[in-house]
Design brief:
The protein has a single domain, classed as Metallo-beta-lactamase, Chain A, CATH 3.60.15.10. 33% of the residues lie in helices and 22% in strands. The chain is an alpha/beta fold. It is globular and about 60 Å long. The chain is built from ten helices and eleven strands. The protein starts with 6 loop residues before the first strand and ends in a 5-residue tail after the last helix. The strands form two sheets. Strands 1-2-3-4-5-6 form a six-stranded mixed beta sheet. The chain has a five-stranded mixed beta sheet with strand order 7-8-9-10-11, with no helix packed on it. Bound molecules: zinc ion. Zinc ion (ZN) binds next to loops.
């Protein structure tokens, strides 16, 4: 999908395997900057390079022109095709320094954050060529400047990217969706990142990893408000549920997940970590 003269969005569908018969359909967005050379933001899950290359072909571009890939963070649906794209194009890989460990060692990531069906989503680690900190302004072509914004909470080195000339803000996984899986590392950092996104007036189009593009201020305000309200609701439920002694693992998590009206199958390390981050403040 073409958003502006040079900025395109490609939706990649995939499934999370929750059990033998239970698959959860999801999608993730890849952003393509089709300037004289090509920059990708995120790479989708394992195998997505074929869809990305096909999209480039449809737009009369060669995948050999991919010069760099910026990874918004380390999670498998964002880094899944990074290694093969680097191998096939010799591009540079950029990511926040705090995400480096899990991008450069996916076995460590799987040990510390075991997403169900992890190796179906990503199968190779990739080395980062440039570690970002946030605050950088990357001129990726003569009229495309990317401002890198550190936006922790979903993960510690999550990045948001402001496309300055095109007035587009990409927030990756920073804005939680109402009634979606609680999926963040730090509740208070995430609330603060949402405040920063809300205060940013330099964009007209909001892109996230898990919604279609939003073109109006009221749509983006509502998305952020819904995210904040959902986090506040989770906060109340965690405070009333995570008390006393836990007689079995993930019991408090399962109770909170059920109170949220979500399937108890979603009680796992990732949701438990998100919920427990509410207890840190
Ligand atoms: Zn993520």
């Amino acid at each position: 999908m073409k958003l502006t003269d040079k900025i395109h969005l490609l939706q990649i569908d995939f499934e999370i395997t929750l059990g033998p018969e239970k698959k959860l359909p999801r999608f993730v967005n890849v952003i393509l900057i089709l300037a004289d050379r090509i920059t990708l933001v995120d790479t989708g899950v394992k195998g997505s390079h074929e869809k990305i290359f096909e999209y480039l072909k449809q737009n009369n571009r060669e995948y050999h022109d991919i010069e760099r890939v910026i990874l918004s963070h380390s999670h498998p649906d964002h880094i899944g095709s990074a290694k093969i794209i680097k191998e096939l194009t010799n591009c540079e890989i950029l990511a926040h320094e705090l995400e480096a460990e899990w991008i450069e060692n996916i076995d460590l990531q799987n040990k510390e954050r075991p997403v169900p069906g992890f190796y179906n989503l990503v199968d190779q680690s990739v080395n980062i060529d440039y570690k970002l900190q946030g605050g950088e302004k990357l001129k990726v072509s003569k009229d495309v400047t990317l401002e890198i914004i550190h936006s922790p909470g979903h993960s510690k080195g999550s990045l948001n990217i402001l496309f300055k000339e095109d007035h587009i803000l990409f927030t990756a996984d920073s804005i939680p969706l109402k009634n979606d899986i609680p999926n963040y590392e730090n509740y208070s950092a995430l609330m603060n990142s949402l405040k920063i996104i809300k205060a940013n007036e330099l964009y007209n189009i909001l892109l996230t990893s898990w919604t279609p593009p939003l073109y109006t201020k009221s749509e983006t305000d509502n998305l952020i408000k819904d995210g904040e309200e959902y986090l506040n609701k989770i906060n109340r439920l965690v405070k009333e549920t995570y008390t006393g002694k836990e007689s079995e693992s993930f019991l408090f998590c399962r109770k909170t997940i059920e109170k949220l009206g979500l399937p108890s199958l979603l009680s796992n390390h990732i949701t438990d970590r998100a919920l427990r981050s509410h207890l840190l403040i």
